Each structure stands twice: as C-alpha cells, then as structure tokens.
Amino acid sequence: MSSQSTAKPWMVSLHGGHSGAYCDHADDTLEGLVQAAVASEMQTYGLTEHAPRVEPDLVYAEEKAMGWDVAHLEKLFGDYVTEARRLQGAYSGEIELLVGFEIEVVPVQRYAPVMQDLREQYALDYIVGSVHWVDGIIIDYTRALFEEAVEACGGLEGLALRYYDTVADMLVALRPEVVGHLDLVRRHGVEDPALETPAVRERARSVLALAKEQDGILDVNTAAYRKGLSTPYPAPWLLAAAREVGVACCFGDDAHRIGEVGAGIPEARDYLLAHGIEEVTTLRREGSGLGRREISLR
Ligand SMILES: [Zn+2]
Ligand SMILES: [Zn+2]
Q1: Structural domain of residue 129, as residue ranges?
Q2: For residue 267, what is the domain's CATH number?
Q3: Prediction pTM value
C-alpha cells in the first residue's frame, strides 16, 4: 500500500468496481476504473463484481439478448477474479485493491451454499452481502418488476418487511463483511412513508443488531444519489438507528463505470458528519486475511 499522505484519507470505497468487461449493465474496463480510483487518491478500493447467477431463469433479458447464459456468467466471473488479482499486484504501490464480490441471494436457502463455494473456490477477500431479490422477484431493476414484488407482498410495507427479513436470513447464512445498500427497497419506492412504518423500523433495527453482532460494516452507498434519492443508502432514520446500535460504516461508490468512481463520497461524508458519525471503517489485507481500520472523517 502507498505510504504517501493524502488530504482525504476517508476517500475509500468497499463496494464498487463493476465494469463493462464482466457486467451487462456496466461500462469501461476494470483497469480503467482502478486508474480512476488512483487518480482520485483513494487509498483503498474494493472490487466487488456481482456473483454469477446459476439458474437459467435468473439470467436477465438483456443478457439473453447478448447470447449470455449461466455458463457465460460463470466464465466472466472467473475472468474478473483473474484480472482483479493482476491489478491488485500491478497497482500495489499506488492503491490497496481488495478483491471481493457482491453476492446474490435468490432465495437465501438455495443460494447461500453457492455463494460460499464461490468465495472458497476463488479465495476472495470478502463479501458484500446484498439483497436484490424478494421471493424470486428482482426489486432494483425495472419499475414493473418492482410493482410485481409489491403486489406479491400485499403492498409496499409488506415488501419492506419481506425485504428486511431476507437481509436477516442472508446475514445469518453468509456473515458478509460488508452489508450492501441496506435499504435498497427504497430504490423504486422513493421515500414513501410505507417504507418506514413502526413495523418496518423494528424489523430493520433487528437487522442492524444482527449486523453489529457479526461485526458487519454498513455500506453507505452513493449510488442512491444517481437514482434520484436525496441521501445515500441507508436513509437518515436507518443511519440514526445504526449509530445507536453501534454498527460501523464504510463508503461504497457502487461504481459501474469510470465516471462513478469516488462519486458522491464527499457528500456522503457530510451526510455522516451531520448525523454524528465521525469515522468510517475500512478493510485491508493483513497476512493471509483482512484487518479493519477506522478512519476519521475530519
Ligand atoms: Zn450492478
Ligand atoms: Zn447491489
């Protein structure tokens, strides 16, 4: 890792590095994203490409249109790890790259062993534990599919409750180091009060307690800005609850192209400071494993 000092030691991201080489809805090369992270003087940048989906009916329509199938998704993931490890060595004097992945859980019981196997097979540094699907329906893709999920759960509040239950199941099954965009359910629900009723808050709070118990780090994810939300994930009430429970936070730019590398992190820093959170936690390679480090936001 670079020993050079930086004016912004908090410019770190533990969730990002999706690139057009391995992901249908991203652009640019992985090396291009890494160079952008170096250029923005990030000290640590976590590469966390999406895990491959292993069932044909979960391949997205856009992927199918490009001729992609499950075997191709699995090949791309292997290629991603090979390239990420190459970059980790090649840029070690300039930036600390971590090589992890963002998991899929659809549903948890069936996918947890698949995700665990991937982690072991590729000796990945860490997991970003994200939930994108609720009862087999993806919630952060098209508006129509989101509405379908709402209907299947009997309304927006019902969807939020099922979503947080699924996050809890995922945490129990996989103990991810980083808890990805905790309230992704807001993606299409844009700040609707049904997503923060007393019942939803109680459910989300138990997820935070579980994350704390597991030493999970909460991804303060700036992709929310790009989706038109006024704050990163998680929302202010969740952030306040996280602070009360004592869950550590990290930043995630969730970059899917060069222009998104580091984007929104300065604003997210202001957001944390405004909510009384004075530090973020990052990961770094230590020996054969990962260590944690707290970085002041001041
Ligand atoms: Zn993505
Ligand atoms: Zn995600």
Answers
A1: 12-296
A2: 3.20.20.140
A3: 0.95
